[in-house]
Amino acid sequence: PTVGALHHHPFPSSSRSPVGGISKNTNVNIQKNQQEVTSKVRTEEVSPGIVLRTENVTGTASNPTRITYTLEVQKKSRIVFELDFTGSSNLILLGADRDSPFRKRTIVEPMSTEVVGELFVKDNSINSPWKVQCKYKWEEQQVEPVNLQSLRRPQTTEKASSESSQKSKKVEIPTHPPLSSNLIEKQNVSDNGVQNNVNSLAILLEKIGLNEYTDTLISEAIDLELLQNMAAQNRHMLRETLKEAGVDKLGHREKIVLAVIESNNAKT
Q: Is the pLDDT reported for residue 125 higher than 60?
């Protein structure tokens, strides 16, 4: 596999490395005007066919500043991409590895685009600067094509003649005995899956000290499975859903989002 390493900050000045690639390593303290929301996007080619897009959205008092790293793989190779934000301050990395709150590893499939890192500012007040320091490395893995022809078994003459003779026979439809009481009990356990999801949500909220929202979310038909699916597909939509359901405080919404993401990681 091909392995690359790069030091990077969302919007620093760049310089060419004599060894090859681009070397960027900048620590920046930024203080924000809370009345404005500005977005800066930077796109760079990490390696031929591998493009990294960094978006920095400056937040307000109600919406925290967000930095998103998106990797686009334009080749038929699998990319293992690892981000390391060690040295950063006043930031939260969503979906961080269990062993480090500032490191995340993502596998991006060939010819696809994936968000590989998402940072949020903890304290978005104008008197609380934040600092981001980012290093990343990647590993390129070749994907072997699947030969479908080799998976097909040739049909022998003997098997073909046997199947032909079976077609002429009368097909008997077997009868099945009625379901036993054990099977009926198993079906009832399956039907209770929705109730288990509701109970799991209540346990999660109690664990993070926000059990006052349990009845609010359940009354809107929101359970833990729904929150986990939304977190995996669109976290912005998850935050908006929590806000509409009655979780008015930004800090409480972020605590719930982080707890749901951790529960997804625990499942995998």
A: yes
Question: Which residues, 6+ apart, have CB-to-CB distance to 24 below 8 Å?
Answer: 6, 7, 8, 9, 12, 14, 15
Q: Is 261 left (phi over 0), alpha (psi -120 to 50) or beta?
A: alpha
CB 242 within 8 A of CB 256: yes
- What is d(CA 46, CA 26) in angstroms, rounded to the nearest whole number? 17
What stretch of H or E contains 233?
A: helix 224-233
Q: For strands 113-121 and 91-93, give the pairing.
A: antiparallel
CA pair distance 141, 95, nearest whole angstrom: 23
Rounded-to-integer distance, Cα 122 and Cα 131, Å = 11
Helix (H, G, I), strand (E, B) or coil at 248: coil
Strand ranges in 85-166 using DSSP code E only, listed in sequence order: 91-93, 103-108, 113-121, 130-132, 134-142
Instruction: Give tens-digit pLDDT for 37-96.
Output: 567 899 999 899 999 999 988 877 667 888 999 999 999 999 999 999 999 999 999 888
| Residue 113 near residue 119, CB atoms below 8 Å | no
What is the rounded distance in angstroms from the CA atom of residue 146 to the CA atom of residue 152?
12
Cβ burial of 124 (10 Å; 0-12, 13-18, 19+) is buried
Please give the model's pTM, rounded to 2 decimal places. 0.47
3-class secondary structure, 206: helix
Determine contact, residues 104/97, Cβ cutoff 8 Å: yes
CA angle 191, 196, 199 (to 5 degrees): 150
In this structure, which amino acid lies at residue 161?
S
